[in-house]
Amino acid sequence: MKVVLINRSDWLGGAAKASFRLMNALQQQGVDARMLVVDRHSDSPQVAVVGTKWGNRYRFLAERLGIFLHNGLNRDTLFQIDTATHGVDVSRHPWVLQADAIILNWINQGTMSLRNVQRLADTGKPLLWTMHDMWNCTGVCHIAYDCTRYQGHCSACPLTGKTGDDLSTRTQRRKAALYDRANIHFVAVSHWLADCCRNSALMNNAPITVVGNPLDIHTCNCTKSSEGEGKKFVVAMGAARLDDHVKGLDLLIETTQHIATERPQLAQRLHLLLYGNIRDHALLDRLAVPHTYTGYVDNVSQIYRQADAVLSASHYESFGYTLIEGMAHGCIPVTTGEGGQVDIVRHRHNGYVTGNRSPQALADGIEWAMKSTLTRQQLHEDVLTRFDTPIIAQRYINIIQSLTK
Length: 405
Prior knowledge:
The protein contains 13 helices and 13 strands. With 405 residues, the protein is α/β, with parallel strands linked by helices.
């Protein structure tokens, strides 16, 4: 079986890492899996760049300019919106022509247009589309937050600043036309995301299968490192950009302030280990408990092997890669449970789900983790049985085989 995956990048961002890991997982199961990208970071011979440097740059800028002019020159929402008006036509690429199946992933920011997707569907090959956020079921946004317009008619989008029919309306119509014509099987990375799609006007009748993201669990050492903070209870939290509003650094700050004033004994034992890029370093000065900030790290193993727990304070998370990475290394997960995280963490069974976004609830979760009797090996084996690469790869193979019968 030959499969080609398409994603904007092969390593930059959560969807890119998930796609690259899926490619490797399929290869380990005997599939000839390859990947097409416009932004390459690995040296894998199974990854190829499509388009030209300047052509890809033009498509990226042209799409941003269209959004920028429509949203009133608002930079704050410029990268929260995607329209898929520009992209590279890969339908005649040799890897696509040779493939038995095509798997789309995150194809925004000038990677592929909706018209390009239609051309792939016109090849007649099984076409899967793995959804890493809500974009497929909304007009233009990747996260709808509290907006429910996508369940009916997208218009007056809060991100465009327009009233009446706007860019979200037009893009929703274009997606509807594509979904009506193209034979696409959608894969949601969590049940939460699948439910969002099934409740949407665009995808309420679309074929959707839930398959989590893969991780090579066997490469994750769950033995705690001798490095670290001694007898402190170390809680790790990270993101590609730590102060991205979605990741909940504001909630973490409020939680530490609550712990420092209301739970001094917990504060004395607690140490935060934070990683990822950050724009506003001054935010870390507001943390009220001891912490270490490492910046961006290539190898998260060195982080999680020093930690006792892994924390996600995200407002929304389609899946929750940091949670399974942490658990694979033996860290107890604590999460707000906003989105797909509840596919990973079962409350008070293999971790703690706060159920709300209060500092008190998150502090309760950290305190529960500190007292928990879960072993590092138990947590490692928990995700091994659900998200290890052979399991996830076989689920994709089963979907492809079902579409070729």
